[in-house]
Write a structure and sequence with these properties.
The chain has about 300 residues and is an alpha/beta fold. The protein contains eleven helices and ten strands. The strands form two sheets. A six-stranded mixed sheet has the order 6-7-8-3-9-10, with helices on both faces. It has a four-stranded antiparallel sheet with strand order 2-1-4-5. Strand 7, helix 7 and strand 8 form a beta-alpha-beta unit. The longest helix is centred in the middle third of the chain and has 18 residues. It is globular and about 60 Å long. About 40% of the residues are buried.
């Protein structure tokens, strides 16, 4: 059986004045129909660049996919032309971008921005597109959707903008929904609502979801499979319950230790990962986390796994 989405040895580089940035370094994973995959790691580890590469949204120049394949339903997306990718992007694979405050066009109504995908990809007329857009706003929990259809983004709260972005992504009933840190700019209550919304929509529509975050607490109850990225590499992947219960990689263990817990003693300090990640302009030789633990100011004890 062919996987819905298969990423093989994906490698993305940025050619800058200072040198070549090794943003994504040969990552591979598969996504089956109905799967929910989490990608976690600290800022700058390559999470967003990896999915922007899948979507064909890396600006060239300076970015370039240097190697690998992205197979969607058996077709290599990297080999497709811009026009061919436009037919897939938004219809078959949709993305909720990182910042709900800036992702919507401020001079166009929210309803029109949702309707556009329906007109372009499904060929609906304006009135049918409007009716479907109102249904989508209702589906994602926007109150009085028929009235809010004509509102501009500045008239929506942060949580409502994120819901509108999800409605836009779901307009054409995509097979894959990519959510790039969709709750980062929102307060904790709204975060929980957005996570529950995506879970409900996933179950209703049967789509596969890739959820990108630096927050291990958010993905714990949402995803089934987890990828941990560091310095553009995948350092650990597997079932989320196995990784949380028995992390095999030192970096994963460090991330889990740094998550705030309610059962900690009030005198126990929150664990941190000291130092900075390596410079992607000049990655150290060898497996990145060996340098990572030296990078972080800790030597790797003899026999400790680094992969």
């Amino acid at each position: 059986m062919t996987a819905l989405l298969e990423v093989r040895n994906l490698t993305t580089r940025f050619h800058t004045m200072d040198g070549i940035v090794h943003a994504v370094n040969g990552i591979s994973y598969t996504l089956e129909e109905g799967d929910t995959l989490g990608i976690v790691g600290e800022s700058g580890c390559g999470k967003s660049v990896s999915v922007l590469s899948v979507m064909g949204l890396i600006p060239d120049p300076p970015g370039r996919i240097a190697d690998g394949e992205v197979l969607f339903q058996g077709r290599d997306l990297i080999q497709l032309s811009d026009r061919e990718m436009q037919k897939i992007r938004g219809r078959d694979i949709a993305m909720v971008f990182q910042d709900p405050m800036t992702s919507l066009n401020p001079v166009l109504t929210v309803g029109w921005q949702i309707s556009e995908a329906l007109v372009v990809h499904l060929g609906l007329g304006q009135e049918k597109a409007r009716q479907r857009s109102v249904e989508l706003l209702r589906l994602v929990g926007i109150p009085q959707p028929a009235d809010r259809y004509s509102d501009y983004p500045h008239q929506f709260s942060g949580g409502m903008r994120q819901r509108a972005m999800i409605a836009m992504a779901l307009a054409c009933k995509p097979s894959v929904l990519i959510a790039d840190e969709p709750t980062t700019a929102l307060d904790v209550t709204i975060q929980a609502q957005i996570v529950d919304l995506v879970k409900d929509l996933r179950d209703q529509l049967g789509m596969a979801v890739i959820w990108i975050t630096h927050d291990l607490g958010v993905v714990a109850g949402l995803v089934e499979k987890l990828i941990v990225m560091y310095a553009g590499f995948i350092v650990e992947k597997g079932d989320v319950d196995d990784i949380y219960a028995h992390p095999r990689h030192p970096y994963t263990l460090s991330l889990l230790k740094s998550v705030p817990r309610v059962d900690r003693s009030k005198d126990e300090k929150l664990a941190t990962i000291p130092g900075l990640p390596p410079d992607l302009l000049g990655l150290p030789p060898g497996w990145p986390l060996h340098a990572a633990l030296s990078f972080r100011g800790r030597q790797v004890p003899a026999g400790e796994p680094t992969a």
